[in-house]
Amino acid sequence: MAADHQKLRVATTSLAGCFGCHMSLLDIDERLLELLERIELDRSPLTDVKRVGPCDLGIVEGGLCNAENVHVLREFRRNCRVLLAIGACAVNGGLPAQRNHLDVRDCLQTVYLTGAGIRRGFIPNDPELPLPLDRVHPLHDVVKVDYFLPGCPPPADAIWKFLNDLLAGRTPTLGHGLIHYD
Q1: Number of domains comprising the chain
Q2: Range of 63's domain?
Q3: Mean pLDDT for each 10-residue chunk of the chain (182 residues)?
């Protein structure tokens, strides 16, 4: 993917998810040091860079549950030559998509007006809050995704194998035992 002497420029982001996929990336453990000799991190929680620059590989965890997620994903896709959807939320909506059979308005009314617990007396309506989507979407509903790595989260060994295949110029392939749909 990148010339041997040139580092692969990688960016990551998390949308409607739990950061479990980023934790799985960190679970590469000491191999992360070897990886950092071969890649350069752009936007990621490790760099605290908020905007993505031109990258060879973009890794996105989390699905799309609000307008801000969609905006971030589209900008991210524009700047990444190759896009990897990592984890169940990015691949198929994951756990957040369990709300897809519910009406968003009903959910908000239950949480803020009629349900058990703290009642605020109003549904928050601040321009700073992103507009919720009617349902949670996987990434490929909005942008072209080049690779999918399922799992909740995918194991560190699967991420390691995927990245090493890509760095070696091979099409990433993961055999039985590295792919999980849980």
Answers
A1: 1
A2: 8-100+135-167
A3: 70 92 92 92 75 91 96 96 96 94 90 75 88 96 97 94 93 79 63
